[in-house]
Design a protein that fits this description.
- The chain is an alpha/beta fold.
- The protein has helices at about 35-40, 55-60, 70-80, 115-125, 145-155, 175-180, 190-200, 215-245, 250-255, 275-285, 290-315, 340-350, 370-380, and strands at about 25, 45-50, 85-90, 100, 135-140, 160-165, 185-190, 210, 320-325, 355-360, 380-385, 400.
- It binds nicotinamide-adenine-dinucleotide (NAD).
């Protein structure tokens, strides 16, 4: 192992080499896996980052975070310098690593049902490389019943491992801070798995909360679906108030003033990202579509974009106009544009306006993004899609701005 953070080549772990890592993070270059790997490494664990995305591994091995994660990069450089991180894309390197944490993506499929084959395909690719008595911790958000199914699947194939399910409940972008400040839900299919997973997460979490695998799987989906429903409530109230000619943001400020029960009431705005819709959908599919509240939330949150386009059409007669979208990430101060509703608005407006220009100070994966000033100069009307701090007090050169969030101080603009 080299202690340098300036090396330019990946340091693979040879399949034939004796296992040197304490923990392997599968999907370790991702938004959930990487911060966890870094935090565990900072607590003295030797962590093997296993990911199929070789270019992300290359970036990380140079001490550079591939995405925004508050406080992660200095810690990454530190653990690299201490020789606590190893990298691989070869499943054979799982062999002999005592603990394996799985954080791969778990999307919904074209029928909006959980894509269960993701976990099965992963299991099939690694089963030949398991070592008896390894602890396998599922951390991806999974459809309820997946952990017990995987336990049976392993047993049917004669795989003798311990299996736990320990969901991730951090806010994306703040994992380094939150991993050490939040309790960890731990479940498992055997006492040994529960004990070992609890000991592992005790190294970083403030407390361990024990549930059964099914309870833990539902708990994770409940957390995300509840948040999604809360956002939908604010968005529906916003549309009701606006249609009635009332100022939703004034109402919100009014109901929160000296009234603690409404303290956590969210603002209106685009509620999206890689998890909230997907996990509400996973819960709906699990409940045989008997999740009316979840479906209503999807209807409202996704529908807000269409409602907004229609209001803009009425006010600005978009034909012949150029619309500028400020913010393409899925939330503020974030560089992740996965499942961002800004792109849905862009698509809808492209059929109504002459041109749609987009900008974002954080997103660096979209070649169509333009500099902010270009978008302001060339647009007839602007939409604040994401309330990034960079847009506070922005000089929009007198152009009309639509601001659902109420964060620019210019009013709603509709
Ligand atoms: N992003 C969040 O804030 C968040 C929070 C809680 C839970 N989750 C859940 O965690 C899981 C991962 O989400 P994410 O946002 O980190 O996704 P991500 O796409 O950022 O990361 C997943 C990583 O897994 C890698 N990968 C995919 N298949 C692989 C395989 N077979 N072997 C090795 N590596 C593989 C990908 O290359 C990628 O780097 C999902 O189930 C998600 O719902 C995400």
């Amino acid at each position: 192992m080299t202690n340098s953070t300036t090396q330019t080549t990946l340091r693979p772990v040879r399949p034939s080499a004796p296992a040197t890592a304490d923990i392997c993070i599968v999907g370790g270059a991702g938004h959930v896996g990487l911060p966890l790997g870094i935090v565990l490494a900072s607590r003295g664990q030797r962590v093997l980052i296993f990911d199929l995305n070789k270019s992300a591994l290359e970036t990380i091995s140079k001490g550079v975070m591939p995405f925004t994660e508050v406080g992660a990069e200095p810690l990454l450089k530190q653990v690299l310098a201490e020789g606590k991180l190893l990298f691989t894309s070869d499943p054979a390197d799982l062999k002999g690593v005592p603990q394996v944490i799985v954080t791969i993506g778990t999307p919904v499929d074209e029928f909006l049902n959980p894509d269960t084959k993701v976990i099965k395909q992963w299991a099939d690719s690694v089963i030949p490389h398991f070592t008896p008595n390894q602890l396998i911790i599922l951390r991806s958000t999974v459809s309820p019943g997946t952990t017990d199914w995987l336990d049976r699947y392993f047993k049917q194939r004669g795989v003798n491992v311990k299996l736990a399910y320990c969901p991730e409940r951090i806010v994306q972008g703040f994992a380094v801070d939150e991993l050490t400040k939040l309790p960890q839900i731990v479940s498992g299919t055997s006492d040994a798995a529960i004990k070992e997973a609890s000991e592992l997460f005790s190294k970083i979490a403030t407390a361990i909360v024990h549930l059964t695998p099914l309870e833990a799987e539902l708990a994770k989906l409940f957390c995300n679906a509840y948040r999604y429903v809360q956002f939908a409530t604010a968005n529906q109230f916003f549309m009701i108030a606006t249609e009635a000619g009332a100022d939703f943001n004034r109402i919100t400020r009014g109901i929160k003033e000296h009234y603690p029960r409404m303290r956590d009431f969210p603002s209106a705005g685009f509620a999206a990202g890689p998890c909230l819709f997907k996990d509400t959908m996973q819960l709906a599919a699990f409940a045989q579509n008997e999740f009316g509240l979840g479906h209503a939330a999807m209807h409202v949150n996704e529908g807000l974009v269409l409602w907004l386009a229609t209001q803009m059409e009425k006010k600005f007669q978009l034909h012949g106009k150029t619309v500028g979208l400020l913010g393409m990430a899925f939330k503020a101060e974030c560089d992740d544009n996965r499942c961002s509703l800004s792109y849905k608005l862009k698509k809808v407006l492209q059929f109504r306006a002459t041109d749609v220009l987009t900008t974002d100070p954080h997103v660096n994966t979209d070649p169509e993004l333009l500099p902010l000033q270009d978008v302001i100069d060339r647009s007839d009307v602007l939409v604040l899609c994401v309330p990034h701090k960079a847009y506070k007090g922005l000089d929009v050169k007198g152009k009309p701005v639509i601001d659902i969030w109420g964060s620019m101080g210019t009013g709603l603009g509709l």
